[in-house]
């Protein structure tokens, strides 16, 4: 495939603000004229660092990545990886894109740039190697952090790798170009006199304000601000309940920009005093609202929580696992944002015929049954339960098991004429264990009065 892009920029959606700034710098870059056309590692040094492809977010299915995104990666000479703790998480698509690039562009180069966190924890797993002695080896990387290269030097180091120029030479040329630009500004402002001085002060204040705003959007800063907010709110609730020695215990299970405001929202597994019930604990959803956060619903006893690239009222969907069938496959609970209520609520159930939600290209989708429908329907005694339904033509794996005493129908896939029901529930060690099964519409009847 012909090269259309200098590089593909891979990043976690929670790092979108930082990725956008890197993208803008790369696209605006113009190579110093004295270097354009000189011999570089990839041939004549080009006049620009772009074009850069960043046409991606977190995608819900592997099939989508293997088609649309694969085409963009295959058309890119280089891969830029924005390395942060979020990008290094196991469920991040960044690792998948690294593997895809190596497969499609085996001779291409991967350029890592550290945006947050510390090596090696900020690197996605495919970038790490072990030497003959088993020691972990991290890749060479440009480092945006103050304790690393700093923003300017890191960007120029990245650009040098993209255009095939020697970094030291490119850095010196860039420094000279900046010096000439500043000298020109100084001469112009000197001619303006006092007015020019005031203009410089105003510009400096604007730059400082912008830098503070940029700093506030760094993922680690946002997380620290949220933790302060959450812990203060929990302490206030415990004090109001008269639990002066109550324990604040929680962990952040997901951070992502759910509402598209450029700030991180947080999902918290809250196991603090007076929060969990006999069946388990809730995952609480908090949406950013300036410097504060607004509670926006909860997910009960869910695991493997992640975002879903389907929006409702401008908000990303959420999905988590809760129940399993006899084969151990999970039922995925999908949550959507209700603008009228200002909360996330359960919007349906997906079954992916396997464990891996990311590999779920074409799930069975069950819409929730209304409470009155639940009470008005029942499963026919002696019905054949289906453990792992197949796609049409349906050769479903019917299992010979008795009808549970009181199966609760919870959802229906009308296209497949298939119902899903909660078939068992138990609590062991404070953990709620629930199982589900499928039953054909032919085995669902009106409940006896």
Q: Rg to the nearest angstrom?
A: 27 Å
**Proportion in β-strands:** 25-35%
The parts where pLDDT drops under 50 for at least 5 residues are 57-64, 391-402
CATH architecture of the domain at 5-165: 3-Layer(aba) Sandwich
Number of H- or I-type helical stretches: 8
Q: Would you give the CATH topology of the domain at 5-165?
A: Rossmann fold
Largest beta-sheet characterization: 10 strands, antiparallel
The CATH homologous superfamily of the domain at 5-165 corresponds to Toll/interleukin-1 receptor homology (TIR) domain
Number of strands: 25
Widest beta sheet: strand line-up: 14-15-16-17-18-22-23-24-20-21
Structural class, from helix and strand content? alpha+beta
The rough form would be described as globular
CATH top-level class of the domain at 5-165: Alpha Beta
Percent helix range = 25-40%
How widely separated are the two ends? 66 Å
Write structural notes for this entry:
- There is one protein chain.
- With 449 residues, the protein is an alpha+beta fold.
- It has helices at 16-28, 62-74, 93-104, 151-163, 167-192, 194-216, 219-240, 371-376, and strands at 5-10, 39-40, 43-44, 52-53, 76-83, 109-114, 129-130, 136-137, 141-143, 250-256, 265-270, 282-289, 292-300, 303-312, 315-324, 330-338, 343-351, 364-368, 377-379, 385-388, 397-399, 408-413, 418-428, 431-440, 444-446.
- It has a domain at 5-165: Toll/interleukin-1 receptor homology (TIR) domain (Rossmann fold), CATH 3.40.50.10140.
- 29% of the residues lie in helices and 33% in strands.
- A ten-stranded antiparallel beta sheet has the order 14-15-16-17-18-22-23-24-20-21, with no helix packed on it.
- The radius of gyration is 27 Å and the shape is globular.
- Residues 57-64 and 391-402 have low confidence and may be disordered.
